[in-house]
Automatic annotation (TrEMBL):
<dbReference type="InterPro" id="IPR006597">
    <property type="entry name" value="Sel1-like"/>
</dbReference>
<dbReference type="Pfam" id="PF08238">
    <property type="entry name" value="Sel1"/>
</dbReference>
<protein>
    <recommendedName>
        <fullName>Beta-lactamase</fullName>
    </recommendedName>
</protein>
<dbReference type="InterPro" id="IPR050767">
    <property type="entry name" value="Sel1_AlgK"/>
</dbReference>
<dbReference type="InterPro" id="IPR011990">
    <property type="entry name" value="TPR-like_helical_dom_sf"/>
</dbReference>
Amino acid sequence: MRQFSQWIFGGLIALAVGLWVAVWPQQVAAATPPLAMAKDAQPIWPAHHPLPTSSIELKHLAQAGYRRAQFLYALRLDYGLEGAEAPLNAMEWYAMPAQAGSTWAQIKLGDLYFRGRGVPQSAEKAHDWYERAAQGGDPLGALAAAMLLIRQEGPAEQWPRVVKWLQQAVQHNIPLAHTALCLMGVRKLETTGFDQELGLQSCRQAVQKREPFAGYLLGDWYWQQADEIRQDPNQLADGQEVKKLRQQAMNWFAKAAAMEVYEPALLPSPQMRLAQKLPPHWIEVLEPLVSAQRSSVVDAAYRLGHYSLKSDNRTQRRRAVNWLHKAAEHGNPDAQFNLGMAYAQGRAVARNMERALYWYNLAAEQGDLSAQFNLALLYYQGKWVKRDFHLARVWFEKAAEAGDPQAMDHLGDIYRQGRGVPADSDKAIAWYLKSAEGGNVYALTSLGDIYQAGEGVEKDVEESLRWYRQAADLGHRSAQGNLADLYRLGEGVEKSLPRAIYWYEKAALQGDALSQNWLGILYQEGRGVEKDLKSAFKWFKASAEQGYPFAQYNLAVLYRDGHGTPQDDRKARQWLLKAAHQDRSEAQNSLGVLFERGLGGKKSAVEAAAWYRRAIRGGSLRARYNLGMLYYRNRDFGSRREALQWLNAAYDAGLIEAETALARIYLSQRSPLFDAEKGERFLRSAAERGNGDAQSLLGVLLTFEKPLGIDYSEAIRWLRKGAEQGNAEGQFHLGYMYHMGIGLEKNSRSAVKWYREAAKKGVAEAANNLGTLYFEGNGVDRDVYKAVSWYLKAANLGHVPAWHNLGNHYRHGIGVGIDKKAARRYFQRAAKKGLLASQLALGEMYESGEGGRRSLKEAAYLFGKVAKSSRDGKYRLARLYLNNGPDNKQRYAIKLLTQAAKAGHPSAQYGLAAIYLEQEKPSDPVTQQTREAYQLLLKSRQGGITEADALITALEKRLPEDEKQTRMMSKPSL
């Protein structure tokens, strides 16, 4: 039996989706007038005769001349209810009642000519029969005549006739006629010249009569008006007007979608057949309009759901899912696909992959490309459903056969990687080529990869370059990055770092993490572009934030070293942790170092060891070395045996630093593993292999008697080698050798040079000594300001003597303004570390009240600490007690002063002599105490105490000539 819905709506309406209209047979029956008797009074139906139960009886009634029987018999022949379809016989039987005035027989004759069934197709004859029915007063005949002309899209002069027949149908209350006028108004304006406002009015009237197609047409018209305003380059888009029009569109879609989907029976009811009043869906020329009526409810629901799902309003999104459900349940593949997407992504509904698969399957079975591709992708990726490469391939193939380049590309991947099928390079390339013909950049890039690696084909870098360039020119970032790699390496093309940077930047700006990282490296190293650490930092950060572990490590190094960004161990640790969790062994090793040293966070030998071990599993040689050193330095944590095990493992793998570390262990005289011969062998081997650390260490050890013996010439040779390699230890010690003139001629300028290099690398002693040379003007022009600058650098590195030196500068205002409080702070820091000179200076400040409160108790405490090991402390403490009491400390003060004097302290000698002489008068005879005072004064004078001259002269007047000793004294140095 023929299904009318298979026929297409000619070229009349380019509908994106099928539409539906409700048809109420009762209304049609009520609106259709009963057939009048023909002039020859041909009988219509036997009085009180029921509808025959057999075709034989119906045929007898037809042969007896009953018009209704003739029509119904023709209908059965036409649609094969008597066996095979017999349109030619049907035409003979239709003709009889048609000639007698049966409008439905006339309409069906029009259908036969319209379709060309049993007769040659003739739109003109079809129109004649439809028009005869219309002239006979049948409004559906009028509608059929109008729709035939509409479908033919004839000349302009025919349109008044179309309007005439449609208005006739409207006057007879045929809702479908309102919809036809609506269609003319909103879709056929240019052809018909029909008044748009009348068309829109007809649309509204049709909607009032519950015609869904009219509601859909109105919604679509308002939506297009909004699009025209938004896209018109000649006028500024009015956002409010667009929003208003789209809201009107949604309102009309909602009216259409809210109507019921009417599915008419294939055959009319017996009562209608007896009344010879058939529904419009049996008029074949009306089939597209009727089909649109049926499908418009579904399609309006789909568009409501599709648009509302994008709303920011949560309630709107939930309603969208309801509309999509209605459309999807009535078979709309677009709605089924969108509903599948909603469930897959958890948009407006809870994520439910089972429901997503269900709706994707329904849409895919109907040929929806997007659904087929998504369904294949779910099975291919296996993230939300069980991975099934077979089903993935089946659906990719269906999408590919329909021309989807993405599906072709994935099929290429399947055959290239042998997923669910044996790997087949030929099939992979074939699918990639098909996809590439469709402009798929992923396929183009894959072809480039295949030829570059020689996968199943002969390696051909030039061919690879050709495919990469095509994809790169189309904007594919991975291809752009690959093309940049070829230019950077000079493979298949002349090496060009500027061209590499050009393509890396294009890919990087599109977010390609690998290209961003390479840009960072090139800017960091200044290759092909001026060195720019800030740009390097920018690109490393962009790549790292995308999770690329190499960039995360590179970014961490910049934070750790303070290159291109302020130094920040905390951030360095954060980024190293991210890279380490992605199994980057170099990051794991560096993270271990931070944990070991407590940089950027807590200090933990346990955590450090754990990260070193992970790095070792990843193949890091340096982590073996670091783990060995960690065990060696942490006696409570590791053992010497484990330390040697890991250091030897690193040494056996060729890590020269491990060889140097083993040398240090064996050469340490405090180590139970001390073995000078073995240590020297390791050390010389590492030094001769060019390790700067080993060279410097060897140089330093050769300046001591043990364990290697002094050899200044060799020491300087090795120190110079290490220093020239940039080793800070070697630079400092070479500077010291020049400074002190050890093993070579003293050369302060060379000392300054090497101290400066070491100081730049953070050697605090070098910075402090450099400050001293600037203060003294030794090897450089004297510059107390630069002296302070270098002292500050050393102080910031924790160098205790530098704190003391800064204390003196602030105390006396040398190179800085006088700041007694700052001086006291620096002295306090150094004093706490046990520096005697700072303890003395701080004691003096407490004694005098400089830079803060005066405290003789604090002064006495500090002087007392120094007195335990220094004559200066004894002298200062003695003087404090002598000058300030208390009385019970005077004898102790004399004792301290005597000890200091015996230790050769000039001021103590002078002071003690003065105390002795205070007890005598010039006229008193010379005693043993007088002679002791005289000897003390002579020693103090030799020590530079010029005040002793007056007392010496006075005493010599009292002493015998042979006891005077001033003539034997040498002049003190100035």
